[in-house]
C-alpha cells in the first residue's frame, strides 16, 4: 500500500487540464466506418501515443493492422512481483448521422449544464482520458505500483475486424493478470456500478433482389413481386409484437438466470428507462422487468432499412432490391455461429421463389461473464465505494464488447469492465454526451482501483 | 379527305432529322422532382415552344404555374367546321437513380441495336417528338386539316400538382372535341394497341416515430420498440404473399370485368411478362392471368423504404424513425379519397402505442375509361391498322395518367391514349429506351390518325 493522497490532490487540482485534454481528442473525427476519416483515425492514434510518451511509458508503438492501427505502450517498472493489467480502450467513434439532430457540432465539444456534448464523449474518449489522467496523477504526484500494458484499437465501432489476428500474434506482449476494459459505464450519476456480464452480438445485412432492375409500378404492379414488401414480410416474421424472436431454435441455448442472479440486478424503474430513452412507452417481452429485458434477454433489432426511392416526393418505382441490417443481442450461452445458421434456415424456409437473397455477416461477439468474487471485481468495488460513498451495484450490460470475448478466448484473461458513461449519454446517436462530474470521479476511481489492486 | 402521301414521304425522308430532334430534347435533364433541375425544366419548355413556332402555331406561350410552366400553342387554321384536338404531353422526366445501373449516361442518348437509350426516351419525349414530326410533315409537305391545341406540362412525374388549377382557369382556351394524350404505348413492336382504360393511383408516405432520437441497440434493445420493425409489420399486413390487399374495404368499389371485357384483352403470355420484367418468376393473385393482374386489378407496392443506418458496414443503432412510400394502383370504380381513409383506418387499428405516425398524401388519380366505339378510337384504330398491317388490340394500361381523369372531370373531354412506348422500355428505371422503328411508325400513325379523324 502506498500513499495516494498526492495523486488524488493532483487530479483534483488538474480538472481543467483533464477537460482540455478530453476536448482535444473529441475534436478528432475518428469515425472508423467511413474511409474519408482515415486521416482522423491516424491523428487520434498519434494523439494517444503522445500521451503515453508524456507518461513515460515504454515500447510505445502505433502498430499497423489490415485496417486501422493499434496503439501499444507499457509500464513494467513495478517489476515482476507486481500484478500486470492490460488496459483496453478504443479511440474510434460512430458516424454522426443524422447530423441535423445535433444541437451542437459533433466534433466541436460543447458544455451544456453538467455535460460535455460531442461524438465519442461517452463512448469512449471520456473513459480513455479518465484512465490517462489517473495515471498522470500517480506518475507525477505519487507512484505507479502496477505493471500496465495499453492496447487502444481504432476499429471497435466496426466490430474490431483486425483485433483477433492482432491479439493472436501478440499473445506474449499482451499477457496480463486481468484486462481493465474502460469501455463501460455506471447506472446513474449517484449510483456506481460494475458490469459483470455483457450481451453478445450478431449483425447481418440481408439483401433481397427481385427482377434485374427497377421497374414502373404501373406497368408491372400485380405481376412482379416487390422486394421491399417481401423484406417487410420477412422482418415481420422475425420478431413478434412483444419482442419475442421467432427465428428457429433461437432460444435453445439461452441460460435462464438463477433467482440469486436476478436478485442482485439493479431495479431500475420503468420511469427511469422511459426518461433515458426519451420516449413515452416501453416495449418488450412479458414476464421480464425492463432491466432484465435490456441486459439479460436476447433481442433482435433492425438497424437499417433501404429500398427504392427515398427522396422527397413520389416516384412510382417497383424496386429491384431491398436491404435490411438486422442485429441480435445474445446472452449466455448463445453462440453467434448458431444464430447465423438459424437466420439462414429462416430465410430458406420463408423467402419466396420470386426473390434471390444473400446474408452478409458483418459482426459478431459471444456473450461474456466475469466472476463476482475475483480480485479485480473486489478491488473495483472498493474503489467505487470509496469515491461514491456507496457500494456499486452489479449490472449486466445490454451492449457488446467483442474484445472481452476475444481476450478471454485467446489470452485466457478475464476483463473487468470499469468506466463512467451513463445510459442516457446518447452513445451512437445525436447529442452524445459525457457527464462531467462522473468523468472527474472516474479519474479518482481509477487511482483507487490501481492502488487497491496492486495491494491485493 | 386530303392527299397525305407527300406528308408520309416527308416523314420517310426526314427520319434522321427526327432522330436528331429526339436526341436534342433527351439531352435536357428535365427532372421535375429535383429542385436543382429547374433550369433544365425551363430549357425543355423553351425547346418545345421553339418547335411550335417552327410549325407556325399561334398563341404560343410558356405559361407559368405554381411550379413548372405549361407550354401552350394552337393551330386553328382548319376553321370552326373542323374538329379540334387537344394534344397533351409532358416534357418532364423521372430521376435517374440508381445511376450506377445505367449502361450509358441517362442524358447522353445512345443507340444500341434498334433502341435509343436515355431517361425520358419512351416516357415520353419519344412520343412528343413523334407528334411534332407528324405535324411538321403535314404542314411542310401537305396540309393540316384539323384544329389543334397543345398543352405540354412539366409536372407529370410528380403528380401534376399545378394542372388541375391550370385547366380550371383555362377551360375555354382548352376546349376540344377530344384530347389526344400521347403518353401511351403499344404492346410489342409488331402489335399495335390502343389503351382504353387506365388504372388510378394513390401514393402515400408513411412516417413512424418511436423515441425522440436514435439510440444504442445494446443499451435499449428489448425495452424500446423499433420503428423499422413496426413499419415492416405494418407493411406486411397490407398485402398477402399473393398480392391480395388487406386494407379494410379495399375491394369494395372494384367493378369486376364483364366476360366481353375480359375477352378483348390481349393475351400476353407469362413468358412475355417475364422477359419484359427481366426476371424468373411472376407473382400475383390467383385466378387472374398476368395481363389482367397488371391492368385490370388494383395493386399495392412499396416504392421506397428508409430507416436507420444504411451505409456500408455495421452501426448498432436503434432508429428513431422509419419511412415507407406506399402506392396503390386503382381500377374503376375505386376512389382515391376512400383508399386514403382505408389506409388511415388500417394504421389506427394496427399501429402499436409505442409509435406515433403520420401519412402524407403525395399523389392521386381516379381510374379512367374511354368508349371503344367513339370517333377518336375508330380513327386511331384505322391509322394503326394502316401502318402496322394488323388491327390494334384494345388494352387497359396498368399505369396512371392523372391528366386523363382531370380533363374528363373539368373539361368533359375524353382522352384517346395514342403513343408508341413499349412495356419493356424501362421507364422510371435505369436504361430507359425508345424502340426506334416504333418511333418512326408512330410518326406515320399520327399522320394517318389526323387525316382520318378530320374526315370522320
Task: Report on the architecture of this protein.
By secondary structure, chain A is an alpha+beta fold. Chain A has two domains: 5-198 and 367-455, Zn peptidases (Aminopeptidase), CATH 3.40.630; 200-254 and 298-364, Alpha-Beta Plaits. The first copy, chain A, contains 15 helices and 18 strands. Chain A has helices at residues 5-13, 15-26, 38-55, 121-141, 163-169, 171-174, 217-220, 227-236, 259-263, 270-277, 290-295, 336-350, 375-388, 402-411, 436-455; strands at residues 58-63, 70-75, 84-90, 110-112, 115-117, 147-153, 178-181, 193-198, 200-209, 215-216, 299-308, 317-318, 321-330, 356-365, 368-369, 393-397, 415-417, 433-435. Chain A has a six-stranded mixed β-sheet with strand order 1-2-6-3-7-17, with helices on both faces. In chain A, strands 11-13-9-14 form a four-stranded antiparallel β-sheet. A three-stranded antiparallel β-sheet of chain A has the order 4-5-18. In chain A, α4 packs across α15 and α13 crosses α15. The model of chain A has no long low-confidence stretch (mean pLDDT 94). The interface between A and B is large, with 100 and 101 residues. β11 of chain A pairs antiparallel with β11 (299-308) of chain B, so a sheet runs across the interface.
